[in-house]
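Look over both lines before class:
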Amino acid sequence: MATTPAVTKKFTFEEYLAYYDGTDTCYELVNGELIPVSLGTGQHGAIVGFLNNSFRDEIRHQKLDWTSQKMVIGVRSPRAGKWDTSRVLDVVVILLTQWRDLRNREAVIELNELPPLLVVEVVSESTKTVDYRAKRVEYNVLNIPEYWIVDPLTNKVTVFSLIDELYEPVEFVGTESIQSLTFPELRLTVEQVLSAED
């Protein structure tokens, strides 16, 4: 006897924003489906904290009207299907005015708003395909000027810079300084990032 596969409820973006299941679980919305976001390892948290602090220091040093935030801002992503997608970003750099606008509403950057200046995702075993493939395409379509993939699994950092509407990747390893168009004066090596203790 054949069994019928379970049907997963599809959520609209508005339903996603209002959804609460009584737990502290954070969800991304991917093609209308709720996908739980794992807490990540201690190393993941240390890298996210270190980069967020480094970006904030650089923003202060250069006196920029920007802010860096970790794991509190989402971005609505275009997908070919009819269902919505919204990603929760590990680290994001946005304009300070944009951050202030998000204070009194859901902290999700909409498709018709300015894209973030820079996004960082830290790879884990369960997210590597999404970080390298799906998010790369989504962030490119959103015209996010710079996307970093920090990969502790392969000990490298890949920086994707938006050039002529396409991402150009550059990989950095070991003691190489990570080159950033968003923060050209920032001096961080891959080793520093991967061995971060926050």
User: Anything to note?
Assistant: The radius of gyration is 17 Å.
